[in-house]
Each structure stands twice: as C-alpha cells, then as structure tokens.
Design goal:
- The complex is a heterodimer of chains A (293) and B (444).
- Chain A is mainly alpha-helical.
- Chain A has 13 helices and two strands, in the order αββαααααααααααα.
- Chain A has helices at 3-36, 54-61, 63-95, 101-113, 116-127, 133-140, 155-183, 187-195, 200-211, 213-228, 232-238, 247-257, 261-286; strands at residues 39-40, 49-50.
- Chain A has a two-stranded antiparallel ribbon.
- In chain A, a hairpin with an 8-residue loop joins β1 and β2.
- In chain A, α2 (54-61) crosses α13 (261-286) and α3 (63-95) packs antiparallel against α10 (213-228).
- The model of chain A has no long low-confidence stretch (mean pLDDT 91).
- Chain B is an alpha/beta fold and 444 residues long.
- Chain B has two domains: 46-151 and 318-392, 3-Layer(aba) Sandwich (D-Maltodextrin-Binding Protein, domain 2), CATH 3.40.190.10; 154-316 and 406-443, Periplasmic binding protein-like II (D-Maltodextrin-Binding Protein, domain 2), CATH 3.40.190.
- Helices cover 45% and strands 11% of the residues of chain B.
- Chain B has 17 helices and 13 strands.
- The longest helix of chain B is centred in the N-terminal third of the chain and has 25 residues, at 2-26.
- The chains are: A mainly alpha (293), B alpha/beta (444).
C-alpha cells in the first residue's frame, strides 16, 4: 500500500470506531423500532403480529394522545420563542464588559447545569398553592387577592407554567451561543455604522442580528428539539394528567405503563419524524451564513 | 447552492440527533416477553434483591449470610424506576435480580405475562394465609405471585387535639357524622379545609377511591372484573361523589388538586394544616406524625376505625410483596431469603421489636399476625390493638380476584377522571362513564 493510499484511508480508519458505535447504539435500534412500529407488541397480548398502520390509527383515535400533540405544540411555541428572545436579551446585556460580569455569567449558566428533574422539583415548590414563593411574592406585591392553585386546573396556564421551567433551563445555553456569535462580529462594522449615523438599535437590527443568524438557528433547533421532547418537567409538575401531558410522556406511558410497546414504537417514530421535519424547516428558514445576508 | 449544501449537512446532523433521541426513547425493545429462565437456579452463592425499600441493618443481613452461606446484594431503587426496570428487563428477557418487588397492583400483570414464578410450590399457601391476612392480595387465578412483607392498609387518622378543641372526643363512625365533625373542627381550630385527600393524578388518588368505596361497603370491580360503580346507588359511585363534593365544598384544601398522597401526609397533616386524613397509611403515626424533626403534631394523631356509610367501614389492603422473577439465577437462594425476610421474628424486628437500631426505615407494620402479637406483648407498637383489629376484621383486598392484568391502564383512567371531576372539567356521571368504558375496552 502506497503512502498516498494510506493517507487517504487514514480518516476512514480513524472514523470507523465512531461509525460502529453510532451504528450499534443508534441506527440498529432505530431500524428495529421502525419495523416494530408496524407490529402489535404487547406482553399482555402475545404473540407479536403484523398490524400495518394499526398502531398509528389507534394513536390518532386516542383523545389523550391527540391532546398531548396539541399540548406539545404549545410547549414548542412557548419554549422556542421565549428561550431565543431571553437568550438574545441576556447575550446583548452581557456583551459589554462591566464589573462582576464573570460572576453574572456564571449565575446565568447555573440553571443549565442542573438536571431537569431537580429544577422541576424546585419549581414545584415555587408553584405550591399553600406555601410556594409564587403565591407569597405575588400576594405581597398586591398582584393577587388570595392564594392560587397554579397547576392542574387551567390547561393553558398549566402548560405555560411548565414550559417556563424548561425555558429557565435551556435559555442559558442559547445566551452563551448567541453571546459567542455576538463577540465574533467584527468591530469595524459597528464603527462604520456609527460613522454613518446608526444608533445602537439600528446597529443591532442591521448588523448584529444578521451576523448572529446562524447562532439563532442553532438555538431555535435546540429549543425545538428539547421542547418537543419535554418529559421530566411535565411528569413532576403535572403527573400523567392529560391536561398538560406531552407526547414523550405519552410514549413512556404507552410503552412502559400500558405495556403497549407497538404503540410506543409508533409514537416514537412519529415524534422522530416531527422532530426531524421541524428542525430541517427551522434551519431552512433561519440559517443563512453571514456573507450571504 | 453553497447555503443549500450547508443546510443539507445540518439537516443530516439534526436527523441523526433525532434518531438518537428515538433510540433513547424506545431502546432495543424485544418483542418477545418470553418467560424462560436465563440460568438455572443455584448457580451462585449470592443473590440480588431489587426492592423500593431500604436494606435491613447490615448485621442482620450478615447473620443471614452466616446461616445460609448466601450473600445478599441489596438494591434500593425508587418505586417508579423499579417498575420500569422490571418491565424493561423482563421484556428483554434478561437477568436483573433474584428477588424483586411485587406490588399488589402488578399481580395480575405478572401472572399473565409470566414474568414472575408462581410461588405455590415453594410456600405453603394455606399455612401462610392463616398468619398473613393480606396474602390473597398477591393471588391471581389461584397462583401466588408474591409474599407480602408488610401489612400496609389504608386507614383514617385524626388529630385528636384538634377534635378535642371542637368538643369531639368520641369519634364518628359514619361519613355523615365525620363530615359534620370536620366542619366543627375546622371552625374551632381556624383550619379552613380540615380534611386531607389527595387529588393529583397519581396512584394515591386511585387507591383512595378504592378505600372510600370500601368505606361505603363495596369494591369497584366485580369478581368477573366488570365495573361495579356505574349505578348511582353503588358504593363506588357514592364514594367518588363524596370525594369530589368534599373537594368542591372546601372540606379538602384546594391545593390538593396537585398533591400526592405522601406529600399530603407530610406537608398537610404533619404540619397541622389539616386535622384528618381518610386514606392514610397504616404506620404513618409512628413514621411521620410522631417524628419531632418533621412533624408539629407529635403525639396528637391517632388511627380511628374508618367511618362508613352507616357504620364503621372497611379498609383497603395495599401491602408490599416480594417474588422471584423468571430470569432469576438463584431461585433456591431466593426462596430461602424470602422465608427469612418474612419470618415472624424478622417482620417484628423490621417494625421495631428490638428498638430503633434494627428498624427498616419507613417499614409500616409486619405482614404476620404472629409478629404483631410479639410486638404487642413487648409493648412497642403504636395502637397495637386498634391496628390488629383492622388487620384481622376490616382489611380487604382492593379487588375480589386480585388486581387485573390491565390494572395500570385502569388506574390511569381512575385517577385522570376523578382528578378532572374535582377540577370541574367533567361531571361525576361523565367520569364514571369514562372509567367504565375503559374497563369494558380493557377487559374485552
């Protein structure tokens, strides 16, 4: 084997362990799941049997599942909009150098570093109707007359409050990504704009925003994937009540509680397709390299 | 075109990430559920015990090892996680433990799937029944799927100090009398909502309905696993109406719509925000209310006979049990361990016969009457006579034929619909119809 040939093979040799690893742990189970989605797989009703689209039809006929799709759509809209908006606002605020900036940056990252389960438990106490901070703070500020039951009574309020917990967790990463993008914008551009008479708002809209568009696209997809797959926060704050249930929660319930693995496979497959399609759509819509703007 | 290429590459990456998510969500599930044992018994001198319970003191486990030569690897895992672990392991037909938790609600499921060994050939069922009043909870189609290792049942607890302040020293025996008494207690003590009933969509709400149905003198399913709660005069229907009315009328705190059972005991009853609980655990007085570090009602709370429709009502038994998964590697050692763990002497020790040093944390009450007697004689059990009377005469299995194989879906329908009825999202007839429809579908 010539040195040139060995050189050409080297990248493939180096990549092969990763390819095998991903293949074994991801694509093989995925292929298996895709096939099983078309079978009735239920230990309580053996043996497994090909049912075509039967699992999918059953899922769409189940009002709890269809409710969970609508709920998940609401989680996504709230999660994507708020995390990208807050992430951008935090990044813009932290772009300028000021005293204690490092400390504030560390504090901003903190929610991202905590496990979702821990955060959900903390917020469960915050929302507690009897002794939660939410009630006492709002009551002290005379914003509410009496203590409220925040979760479990009103569908949209419950969804919004659950998603706020996730926004609290994922916004720090968005802020960091956008901050990094903002810091890589050449200062000459701002200087030229200032000379041309542009103010801070104009500079943000005309220079910063177009230049950080790839970062915004990444943050949007990140928020989209996480919101679509929301589970821990819903399970801890809402239990399995259909009121705020998400598709991922229903996937768990269908497969591991009801032992309807065929239905669980089908729901997972639908969620994968939804995640992939929405992510590609978001990227196609938002992703532009700065020089192409 | 350059941008499009970038988008395509990014899209491929996203697709890969999504597929990883899918794989994580569903894993490599096996379609089988085959029940053949992976390894023959007796292949090792150690066993793994997977339960949602803390281990007994190490010295006592060491004694077992000395007596039998069997080393015990105790894995204490949260109840929910353990159920998922059992399902995943047994579906994949892999070993995870030699002895594992058999919850009373899973008995029908395990019998039908064949995930656990029927224990009839390892234990004398008739002899055990005489000493373990709750053994029947673990029988399905005459197969013993687990052995109870405690005697948990749902009870009524009251704060006697609050009741005395309202002038009530003789406890009411009917639910009507109990309601009136609670209203007086609330006024006398400045407690707006004196009754703790949990309404979160969790298992505690389902079991509370079974308990209230027992208090009204019935069960929610017939011996043929058909709905027994659709008639407005049935105990199940009346129980649901009573619970929802109690919530809507303010007898139960509004915040309880999202409160689970254990949460309610520790944050409401133990902090004197409520004065009574109708679906409390047997053992709560010692393990929750009389613990000074976390309770403000020490020595104030007592068990009382559960008020019923016209006289003292029944109590639902929900004990914890252990059994042997079909994939166990050491069945003989597992049987020896179950015998040791549920023996008369040890059951009493876990509950406090030798004092606090040997107690298994959160252990409610022994499964055996003989253990009860040991403790009563030693004088180290709270209200021993009261609890023993309930255990002997009033504690009944939640279902006449054991928990059905579709119990999990049934319970989900129960908790969801009662929760929604309490939250005003549906009426009692709608909730009853929805649960009955689910039963018909599941049983078909």
């Amino acid at each position: 084997m010539s040195a040139g040939h060995r050189g050409r093979m080297l990248p493939y040799i180096l990549l092969s362990p990763l390819v095998v690893f991903i293949g074994a742990l991801s694509f093989v189970p995925t292929a298996d799941t895709t096939v099983e989605a078309f079978f009735r797989v239920n230990p309580l009703d053996p043996p497994s049997k090909f049912v075509g689209f039967g699992n999918f039809r059953a899922l769409f006929a189940d009002s709890v599942i269809t409710t969970s799709w609508v709920n998940t759509a609401a989680y996504v809209v709230i999660g994507v909009v708020l995390s990208v908006l807050f992430g951008t606002a935090i990044a813009v605020a932290l772009k300028r150098r000021f005293r204690w900036r490092g400390v504030i940056l560390a504090l901003v990252i903190l929610p991202w570093a905590l496990p979702a389960v821990v955060e959900a438990v903390i917020w469960n106490w915050i929302y507690d109707p009897t002794f939660g901070v939410a009630n006492s703070a709002l009551h002290s500020a005379h914003l509410i007359g009496g203590y409220h039951v925040w979760l479990g009574l009103d569908r949209w309020l419950t969804i919004a409050l659950i998603e706020i917990v996730q926004v609290w967790q994922i916004t720090p990463l968005s802020a960091l990504v956008i901050l990094a993008a903002l810091q890589s914008v050449p200062l000459d551009l701002y200087e030229a704009a200032r000379v041309d008479g542009a103010g801070p708002v104009q500079s943000f809209w005309r220079i910063s925003l177009p230049m950080i568009r790839p970062a915004l696209a990444v943050c949007t997809v990140e928020a989209l994937v996480l919101s679509l797959n929301i589970f821990d926060q819903v399970y801890i704050l809402n239990g399995i009540a259909p009121l705020g249930s998400s598709v991922m929660l229903q996937t768990y319930v269908t497969a591991f509680e009801n032992l309807n693995f065929g239905g669980g496979y089908a729901l997972s497959l639908l969620m994968t397709l939804a995640t992939a399609l929405l992510s590609v759509a978001a990227l196609a819509l938002l992703y532009r390299r700065p020089e192409a703007v | 075109m350059k941008n499009l290429g970038t988008v395509r590459r990014a899209a491929a990456l996203v697709l890969s990430a999504a597929l990883v998510t899918l794989a994580a969500a569903c894993g490599s599930g096996n379609s089988g559920g085959s029940s053949s044992a992976v390894a023959a018994s007796g292949s090792s001198n150690s066993i793994t015990v997977d339960v949602a319970y803390p281990a007994p003191p190490a010295a006592l486990l060491d004694q077992f090892t000395k007596q039998t030569g069997i080393k015990v690897n105790w894995v204490n895992i949260g109840w929910d996680d353990l159920q998922t672990k059992i399902t995943a392991a047994m579906t994949a037909n892999t070993y995870f433990a030699d002895v594992a938790d058999v919850d009373w609600s899973k008995v029908g499921e395990y019998q039908k799937t064949g995930w656990f060994y029927p224990l009839n050939k390892y234990f004398n069922v008739a002899s055990l029944s005489a000493d373990m009043p709750q053994l029947n909870t673990f029988r399905s189609n005459n197969e013993l799927m687990g052995v109870p290792f405690d005697s948990s049942f749902l009870v009524t607890t009251v704060n006697t100090k609050d009741f005395a302040k309202a002038g009530i020293t003789t406890m009411p025996t009917t639910l009507a009398g109990f309601t009136t008494a609670l209203q007086k207690v609330g006024k006398a003590n400045g407690i707006a909502s004196p009754l703790d009933i949990q309404f979160a969509t969790a298992e505690g709400l389902s079991t509370c309905w079974y308990q209230m149905t027992a208090a009204f003198g019935g069960q929610v399913l017939t011996a043929q696993d058909a709905p027994a709660f659709t008639s407005p005069s049935s105990p199940g229907y009346q129980a649901m109406s009573w619970m929802v009315d109690a919530y809507k009328s303010g007898l139960v705190p509004k915040g309880n719509i999202n409160t689970t059972d254990y949460q309610g005991f520790t944050t409401e009853q133990a902090k004197n925000r409520t004065a009574a609980a109708l679906c409390d655990y047997s053992g709560s007085v010692a393990s929750i209310y009389n613990v000074p570090s976390s309770s403000s009602v020490v020595n104030q709370t007592e068990y009382i006979p559960t008020p019923g429709a016209s006289a003292v009502g029944l109590n639902v038994a929900n004990p914890d049990g252990i059994g042997i998964p079909k994939t166990a590697k050491n069945v003989a050692a597992a049987v020896k361990f179950i015998n040791w763990f549920t023996s008369t002497q040890n059951q009493a020790i876990w509950a406090g016969l030798n004092g606090p040093k040997d107690v298994v944390s959160t252990f409610p009450l022994p499964a055996r009457l003989s253990s009860f007697n040991l403790m009563a004689k030693a004088g180290n059990i709270e209200q021993a006579a009261q609890l023993e009377a309930i255990l002997k005469a009033h504690a009944q299995a939640p279902f006449p034929n054991g928990a059905p194989s579709w119990y999990v879906q049934f319970s989900a329908a129960v908790q969801t619909n009662i929760h929604e009825a309490a939250a005003g999202q549906e009426t009692i007839p709608q909730a009853v119809s929805a649960i009955a429809a689910e039963v018909s579908q599941l049983a078909a």
